[in-house]
Amino acid sequence: MLSIVRILVLFSILLSGFVVSAADFKTGIQVGVAEIDITPPIGFPMAGYYHERLAEGTIDPLKAKAVVFREGDTAAVLVVCDLIGIATDLSKEVRRIASEKTGIPAENIVIAATHSHTAPDYMKELYLYLGKESQEKLRKEYIEKLINGPVTAIEQANENVKPAALTTGSAIQQTPVSFNRRFVMRDGSVKTWQSLKNPEVIRAAGPIDSEIGLLAITDRESGKKQGVISNFALHLDTVGGMKWSADYPYFIEQSLRETLGPDVISIFGTGCCGDINHSNPASPVRNKVDFIGKSLGTSVTEQLEKLTPLKNTTLTVGSQVVNLPLQDASPEEVARSIKILEIAHKGGKVDFFDHVTAYKRMILDQIRHKKPHANTIEHITWGLSRSLAGAGESLPVDVTVMTIGDEVAIVCLPGEVFVELGLAIKQASPFKTTLIVELSNTVETIYIPHRAAYAGGSYEVTNSNVQPGSGEMLVEAAVKLLREAATKNRTD
């Protein structure tokens, strides 16, 4: 009888110990999503072009949308903002504050932009704010909102973390909405924005990427979709005008909410689209924003039920700093740039490519030189940077790779990256679904063409701050991180 009692007591102790350890032991991935409004006020400068224009209203709201992944002791954050780009000053500030508030390492936090051209031109105002310099009250208050918005989205997503079921895969965009905008001409040059009716056009200079990468997040307890991450390579400049708009990703969001409910969060990451536009060179009629967004939204929603459930949800995060070689700006080039910008500012006529070159030389002057040849803030608005000022001959940028199990990877790259570079990463990736999000953490590279594009020239090459080979450096870093993650997954 005594032995039976002892056995029961021992069993009770073991059982209680099992309950405690089971409560403490977390299996599987946990995910949280959140979004915050970051729409600027009327009267704040709008981005996208080479002259100041002040917003006159709002078509649809701009947002910061965050997703937090947690698995064991590892956490990763992607927050995508309806902005034209992420200044290094902004990413450093947001990542620093968010890391302090959540405990997630700053290097595991990525802040990306969709590249909306109907978003704020905020870089000069951020520069003034961080330097505690005088600025208009309306503009100062918006900069505070711009910093706090992504941070709050990350905080809320982190608080919303819960066990999740993930499904992944891709859709192929069948309705033509994206087109390579560079063309090989009969004289051997390359020109951007041409019509196929031009007899001098031979062919498009490159491909498109018709894949829409997808990752859907479902709450395990309720069975409801919490969020959908989508990724497609198409430049955002389809709205125009003087009112705030998130561009075509807004209509992707509306399509998802019509299908999944009003609370689902649509996180759209812009793919490598430095040479991809929405204008069909075979047609004089441009696709409009609602047609593009609804078409992509339909492709996404039709594929949701066909996505593959992830069984292995081991989370890895890898990041590498890549020092991209910068072009230079000599004293003579800076002096000429100032004259061109002064003429343009007064409403005079200047050659478009001269204007673009002058603007980028001013950015390069500040980044390259400890003592710039000009007082940069007097001549430009975007491109000003406190954290990159005097950086020298190279621009340090982050390449970050997040992987979940052995099926899905999210690759985050700086700048406006050519589609061929994104396709090269996908081709080499050991992960079946590879989402590539450009304009992450740093926009000061501006365009990042592949090496061969520099020989052809035209707009994107003119508007690049980095030297030939920089794009290939990003590809090498991304593939290296992907292979390391794949090897770690197999070892684990």
Give the beta-strand count: 22
Largest sheet: 9 strands, mixed
Shape: globular
Give the DSSP E fraction (strand runs of 2 or more residues): 15-25%
Helical content stands at: 25-40%
Number of helices: 12
The low-confidence runs, each spanning 5 or more residues with pLDDT under 50, are 1-26
End-to-end distance = 47 Å
Q: Helix- and strand-based class? A: alpha+beta
Q: Mind telling me the C-alpha Rg?
A: 24 Å
- Give the integer mean of the pLDDT values: 93
Q: Could you give a quick summary of the protein structure above?
A:
The chain has 492 residues and is an alpha+beta fold.
What does this structure look like?
By secondary structure, this protein is of the alpha+beta class. The protein has 12 helices and 22 strands. The strands form 6 sheets. Strands 1, 3, 4, 5, 6, 11, 12, 14 and 16 form a 9-stranded mixed β-sheet that branches. It has a 4-stranded mixed β-sheet with strand order 17-18-19-21, covered by helices on one side. A 3-stranded antiparallel β-sheet has the order 9-8-10, with no helix packed on it. α2 crosses α4 (137-159), α7 (331-345) packs across α8 and α9 runs parallel beside α12. The radius of gyration is 24 Å and the shape is globular. The model is unreliable at 1-26 (pLDDT under 50).
